[in-house]
Specification:
Blueprint (H helix, E strand, L loop, with lengths): L15 E4 L5 H13 L4 E6 L10 H17 L2 E8 L17 E10 L8 E6 L2 E5 L9 E13 L4 H10 L1 H8 L7 E7 L8 E3 L3 H9 L17 H30 L3 E5 L6 H7 L14 E4 L8 H12 L6 E4 L9 H13 L4 E4 L2 E2 L24 H16 L2 E2 L3 E4 L2 H4 L13 H17 L3 E4 L1 H7 E4 L2 E4 L2 E3 L1 E4 L4 E2 L1 H12 L3 E4 L6 E2 L2 E2 L11 H8 L9 E7 L5 E6 L9 E4 L5 E3 L6 E3 L2 E4 L2 E5 L1
Parallel strand pairs: 1-2, 1-14, 2-3, 3-8, 8-10, 11-12, 12-13, 16-17, 16-21, 21-23, 22-24
Antiparallel strand pairs: 4-7, 4-9, 5-6, 5-7, 15-26, 18-19, 19-20, 24-25, 26-27, 28-32, 29-30, 31-32
Helix pairs in contact: 1-2, 3-6, 5-6, 9-10
Length: 614
């Protein structure tokens, strides 16, 4: 490791700065100084509950102006948060005033008679679903699907509504501060955009977009979302894949393009990233979302950790798409009694899986009254260990710099199985409806992490757009893989099947880690070409850094101009771990991120590198 000053404002934590009271410019300036003293590199100006200054008013913009000015003087980054509350998209409530803008969802009922008020009415005959347009003899049960609305949020799958959101929010900032975009104002944070998550999501956009995409009337089979029938797997695949496309393109794509055209960056995160079934609630897959962020981001709440899924999804896409930084909004709901040691564990778990920039939730302007109950703890002057916060922030600044300026050794691609969840997802049965895909996937990815096998996930939409095969290796964007793993799944996209067929024909190495898919695009197909030629034991021998797998230790091997390194963490809250790690190095030292000092580490020479004792 070369000796260098690793501290960079662009790698320093950027907290959510909760604007939650009457905003006074002098107090804003004072708090910015306190953030800098705590080792923070900027802030997100975030309207939240308790705000007494009217959102997007003249007084609001004067507060923004003072904060941007103070940040510039101090060499810090000022970011705008794009909403008053969350999820992003309703323009502080303005767009909810028009019922035409409100979110849609579907309701299903079985009735004894035909209901002309339903969006679609169906009957089941010999395992097949059929749409009917009126009462008919011999039908005792009518399957009715209704188009409903909810007034809590808007239909962001409609580009007209997204454009109205941009006009009411982003354009207002640009009118006042356009000259500062890309300078004093770094960009925008978008927070948890989603379709309606509490029922079976729907948008009237599907009435035209389904016909464009598939050449058919969506109402002919809409009831198959709720009834198991021969048509259900294929229809559900088409339905949820298109919902994901509309979510990604009509909201995130439009917001991202606006930001690029106006010389600013976009960051933030989608929602419920940590499980397949929760992704189905809100967006039908998170990874395509990251294409449309300058700094892709993830959210992690609470004081526990989970599987690697949430941080590794975003870091996989970021590396494939050549995006250097990966942000986490983290530490909300950890509670007032959370300790720095616990927070370090939560953050290191995310960083070892590819995150490298921290957004602490929350730095409050005020804790007066109910404001102190806004998903604490707070990472501000109100924290009893605030004097030590700079050391904490310095550590993750250094670590973030190293990770952001290095390349992960990961030449194993695991195809992400979210599209198989499309075939069976039922909002009423929730997690159980996709358990046969979600559970084995969680087990598989933790097995890879425990063995220290560098790996990324391949989202099938990103693979279709950026995937190619050459010389028996599969490439997605800027990352190339020597090994491909198919987890337990039931379907592959036709584009994925074509890539894998070419990959195998060129001698690519494929591991089938569970049941073999039997469908393409949700329909029964011939996948006889999909034959595994790689076992788990072979992969361990060739790529495992931790051949004696430990359930608590995770590591990432990185290559960089300043020196190659291994970042390893023990995630246990109670136990230490002594183990050996295989490294392709000639020697190794331990590096202290805060003192920049090194110390010796015992190792033995091997035929292909060293084995170091940790």
């Amino acid at each position: 490791m070369k000796s260098t000053d690793l501290i960079s404002v662009f790698c320093r934590p950027v907290p959510f700065w909760s604007w939650n009271d009457k905003l006074e410019p002098d107090e804003l300036r004072r708090q910015i100084g306190a953030m800098q003293d705590a080792g923070m590199g900027g802030f997100f100006m975030h309207a939240r509950g308790g705000l007494e200054t009217e959102y997007l008013s003249e007084d609001w913009f004067r507060a923004v102006e003072a904060s941007v000015d103070e940040a510039k003087k101090r060499g810090m980054q000022a970011w705008c948060y794009d909403e008053n509350g969350w999820p992003s998209g309703f323009a502080g409530g303005k767009l909810l005033e028009d019922p035409e803008n409100r979110a849609h969802y579907l309701r299903f009922e079985k009735k004894p008679g035909f209901d002309a008020a339903a969006l679609g009415v169906y009957t089941l005959e010999n395992g097949h679903i059929r749409r009917i347009t009126g009462a008919a003899n011999g039908i005792s049960e009518y399957l009715c699907v209704y188009d409903c609305q909810n007034s809590s949020t808007v239909d962001i799958l409609d580009p007209r509504i997204t454009d109205a959101f941009l006009a009411l929010t982003h354009e207002k900032y640009f009118e006042r501060f356009g000259a500062e975009f890309g300078k004093g104002i770094a960009g925008f944070f978008t927070d948890e955009p989603q379709y309606f998550r509490y029922e079976t999501a729907y948008t009237p956009m599907l009435l035209t977009e389904y016909k464009k995409a598939y050449g058919a009337d969506i109402l002919d089979l809409l009831g198959a979302l709720f009834v198991d029938c021969e048509e259900a797997p294929g229809f559900r695949f088409r339905y949820w894949r298109l919902m994901n496309v509309l979510y990604t393109e009509n909201f995130m794509g439009r917001v991202y393009r606006w930001c690029i055209e106006h010389n600013c960056r976009l960051t933030g995160h989608t929602v419920e990233e940590s499980q397949l079934y929760t992704q189905m609630w809100c967006c039908a897959g998170v990874m395509p979302f990251y294409e449309y962020e300058s700094i892709p981001g993830v959210d992690w709440l609470g004081r526990k950790i989970g599987t690697e899924l949430a941080p590794r999804q975003v870091s996989s896409a970021a590396q494939q798409l050549g995006k250097k930084q990966v942000l986490t909004e983290t530490f909300a709901c950890a509670g007032w009694d959370v300790t720095p040691k616990e927070l370090k564990r939560i953050a290191e778990w995310q960083y070892v899986n590819g995150v490298n920039l921290m957004c602490q939730h929350l730095y409050p302007y005020s804790i007066r009254g109910q404001r102190k109950r806004d998903y604490p703890a707070f990472y501000s002057e109100h924290n009893p260990w605030t004097d030590e916060l700079k050391t904490f922030d310095d550590y993750f600044t250094e670590l973030g710099y190293l990770l952001a300026n290095s390349r992960e050794q990961a030449d194993v691609l695991i195809v992400h199985p979210i599209h198989s969840a499309y075939l069976t997802f039922d909002r009423a049965n929730d997690e159980a409806s996709v358990r046969s895909v979600g559970e084995p996937f969680n087990v598989l990815i933790e097995r890879f992490g425990a063995a220290g096998i560098g790996h990324h996930y391949g989202d099938e939409r990103l693979m279709e757009k950026y995937g190619s095969v050459k010389d028996g290796r599969l490439t997605i964007g800027q990352c190339t893989y020597s090994f491909v793993v198919i987890p337990d799944c039931d379907t592959l996209d036709s584009s994925t099947a074509a890539l894998l067929k070419d990959y195998l024909a060129q001698g690519g190495r494929l591991m089938l880690a569970g049941r073999k898919p039997t469908r393409i695009d949700g329909e029964i197909a011939d996948l006889s070409f999909l034959q595994g030629n790689l076992t788990w034991d072979e992969l361990v021998r060739e790529r495992a850094l931790l051949p004696e797998a430990n359930r608590d230790v995770r590591c990432t091997l990185r290559f960089a101009e300043n020196g190659n390194f291994l970042f390893a963490v023990n995630l246990s809250e109670t136990d230490t771990a002594d183990m050996s790690v295989k490294l392709p190095f000639a020697g190794v030292e331990a590096y202290d991120l805060l003192t920049h000092k090194t110390k010796s580490v015992a190792f033995e020479k091997t035929t292909d590198g060293i084995a170091a004792k940790l």
